[in-house]
Write a structure and sequence with these properties.
- With 161 residues, the protein is an alpha+beta fold.
- The chain is built from three helices and six strands, in the order βαββαβαββ.
- Strands 1-6-5-4-2-3 form a six-stranded mixed β-sheet.
- The protein binds tetrahydrodeoxyuridine (THU).
- Tetrahydrodeoxyuridine binds next to strand 2 and helix 2.
C-alpha cells in the first residue's frame, strides 16, 4: 500500500530587516556589498553572498559570468568555495544571499539555485552542523532557514554513495 512521505519545511519570514538578529543583518549587509563585485555583463543580474565562519570571519562572493555561459559561477558557490579554499578547518555558520538588477538600487528576492543548494548541502554534511541561510525576500522582507535541509529535502550526499 503506497503512502505519502511529507516534509516539514520551515522558513522564518521577517517583514522587515530590522527584526533580524544583529549577526544575520550584518551578514546580509555584507552580501549586499558583495553585489558590487559581481561580473554579470550577460544577465545584468548582480548576486551577492556572504559566508560567516565559526571564528567570525566573513567571506564574500558574487556571481562571475563568462562568454561561455556555463563556465560562470553563482555568488553562493564563489563565496563558499573561497571559504573552503582559504579557511579549510572553519565550519560555516551562516550564508546570506541577495540580488539586484543593474541600474536598480533596491535588492530583490534571492533564491539559491539547485546547484548552489547541492554545494551547501555538501559543506553541511562535511561539517556535521547546520548552515543557516539568510535570503533577501524582496520588498524589505528577509527569509531565514535554519538548515540546508529546508532548501533541499531528500538530498543526495556522500551518505548515499
Ligand atoms: N545566480 C547566482 O549567483 N546565484 C543563484 O543562486 C542563482 C543565479 C547568478 C548566475 C548568473 O550569473 C545570474 O545569476 C543569472 O542567472
Amino acid at each position: 500500500m503506497a503512502w505519502k512521505l511529507a516534509f516539514d519545511i520551515f522558513v522564518t519570514v521577517y517583514e522587515n530587516e530590522s527584526e533580524l538578529e544583529e549577526t544575520a543583518l550584518s551578514l546580509l549587509q555584507a552580501a549586499r556589498q558583495a553585489t558590487q563585485t559581481a561580473y554579470a555583463p550577460y544577465s545584468n543580474f548582480y548576486v551577492g553572498a556572504a559566508v560567516l565562519l565559526d571564528d567570525g570571519t566573513v567571506v564574500k562572493g558574487s556571481n562571475q559570468e563568462n562568454a561561455a555561459y556555463p563556465s560562470g559561477l553563482c555568488a553562493e558557490r564563489t563565496a563558499i568555495f573561497a571559504a573552503g579554499a582559504n579557511h579549510q578547518h572553519q565550519k560555516v555558520k551562516m550564508i546570506a544571499v541577495t540580488a539586484k538588477r543593474k541600474e536598480e538600487t533596491f535588492f530583490i528576492t534571492a533564491n539559491p539555485c539547485g546547484s548552489c543548494r547541492q554545494v551547501l548541502a555538501e559543506y553541511q554534511q562535511k561539517q556535521g552542523t547546520p548552515i543557516q541561510v539568510i535570503m533577501e525576500g524582496g520588498q524589505g522582507k528577509v527569509y531565514v532557514c535554519n538548515s540546508i535541509d529546508m532548501l533541499l529535502p531528500m538530498k543526495f550526499t556522500s551518505l548515499d554513495l
